[in-house]
Every structure is written in structure tokens, then in C-alpha cells.
Specification:
By secondary structure, this protein is mostly beta strands. The protein is built from 1 helix and 14 strands. The longest helix is centred in the first third of the chain and has 23 residues. The radius of gyration is 25 Å and the shape is elongated. The two termini are about 50 Å apart. The N terminus is likely disordered.
Length: about 180
């Protein structure tokens, strides 16, 4: 009886030891740190306020991150904007390396009201933008920011030409 108990305890010890050895060879996964989610409120640069958000605070490498870019008329007057806003996402990896989405940007257009929309004071529009994480070089928190590019219009109505930056938003990318 004692002999059987000895072999049972010894075999459990060997199995547990083998599992422990195999676990130590696995690369540690970085822990989620501060800097996930909205890092500051929406940024207002009159006449527009731009906010960036996402329900995804943590994604696996290879999964897309879906962002919502909210553009609000922060002025006291109506504002005209292109129906097809040009939104570029820029981000910084945990290493400090920077990257961005590519979008054609035009600085001047000749558009009539059929290609524009009017926002009343306080009115918002929301656009969705996604980023693939398939080729992210490092795991950890990457910080994103949206840039809304508004061209000048040679026709009436005038557009609030310029670049409008959003708040920064952190997303943890894991294996």
C-alpha cells in the first residue's frame, strides 16, 4: 500500500514538474497598462470638435479595431462639411514608432450643396474607421488619433478648411 502511494505521489510530481518546465519557456505576455481608452476628452478647434472612441479596449493581433469618429459643430453658426469626410488615423506603437492610414487628401474643391452637408450648432455626425492589426510589430498599448481633413471650397457655401485632430485613444494589442 505504501509503495503504491509513493508511485502515485512521484508520478504527480513528475507531471507537475514537466508542466512547470514547459510554462517557463513561453514568452510572457505584456500586462495591460494605463493608457487604454480615451486618454483625454474630444478636442475642440473651432468650429469643429472631433472625438475618437471604440468599444474595443483590447484586441488580438490580426483582429481589426473599429473606431468611431465623432465630428461636432462647436460653433454658434451652421457649418458646411463634405459628405465624404477624409479621416486619417495616426497611431504610435508601444516602441514609439508611428504609423497611419493612407487617404487621398485634397486641399481645394469646387463642390455645390449636393456634395455637402450642413451641421447646425451642437449637431454631430459619426463615421466609422477600422485599422487592421495584422502587421503590428509589437504587443502592448498603441495610441490612436483621428485627423479630419476639410478642404477649402471655391464655390458657395464655404467650408471650414483645415485639419482637425481628435483626442488620443489607447488600445491594448495582445497575441
Amino acid at each position: 500500500m505504501n509503495n503504491v502511494r509513493f508511485w502515485t505521489v512521484w508520478s504527480v510530481t513528475v507531471v507537475v514538474g514537466a508542466v512547470g518546465v514547459s510554462c517557463t519557456s513561453v514568452e510572457p505576455v505584456p500586462k495591460v497598462r494605463a493608457g487604454v481608452g480615451a486618454l483625454e476628452p474630444a478636442v475642440s478647434m473651432l468650429p469643429l470638435a472631433v472625438g475618437l472612441g471604440s468599444p474595443q479596449m483590447k484586441v488580438r493581433r490580426g483582429e481589426p479595431i473599429l473606431f468611431e469618429v465623432e465630428v461636432q459643430n462647436a460653433s454658434d453658426e451652421p457649418v458646411w462639411l463634405p459628405k465624404d469626410l477624409v479621416i486619417v488615423l495616426v497611431w504610435t506603437y508601444p516602441t514609439g514608432q508611428r504609423d497611419n492610414t493612407m487617404m487621398p487628401m485634397t486641399t481645394q474643391v469646387s463642390w455645390g450643396p449636393d456634395k455637402l452637408l450642413q451641421l447646425q450648432p451642437g449637431e454631430k455626425i459619426v463615421r466609422q474607421v477600422s485599422v487592421s492589426t495584422r502587421y503590428f510589430p509589437r504587443l502592448g498599448v498603441s495610441k490612436f488619433q483621428a485627423i479630419v481633413q476639410v478642404p477649402s471650397n471655391t464655390l458657395t457655401p464655404a467650408l471650414p478648411a483645415g485639419r482637425y485632430a481628435s483626442n488620443r485613444f489607447g488600445v491594448f494589442v495582445t497575441e
